[in-house]
Amino acid sequence: MRILIVTIGTQGDVQPYIALGRALMESGHEITICTCAHYEPFIREYGLDYAYFNNDFIDFMHTPEGKIILGNAGSAWETVVTVVPMMPKILHLAEQQITDIWEACKESAPDLILYHMKAPGVPDFAEKLGVPCMLAFWLPLHVPTTRFSAMGFPNLPLGPWYRRLTYQFTKMVGIMTSGRMIRKWRAQHGLDPRSPGLRMRLPDGRPIPVLYGFSRHMIPPPQDWPDTATVTGFWFLDQDERWHPPKSLSEFLSRGERPMYFGFGSIFGRDPKNATRIILEAVRRTGTRAILAQGWGGIEPAASENAESVMFIESAPHNWLFPQVSAVAHHGGCGTTAAGLRAGKPSIICPFFGDQFFWGRHVERLGVGPSPIPQKRLTVERLCHAIDVAMNDSTMRQNAATLGNRIRKENGTSNAVAFINQWMNSQ
Question: Against a cut of 0.85, is the pTM above it?
Answer without folding.
Answer: yes
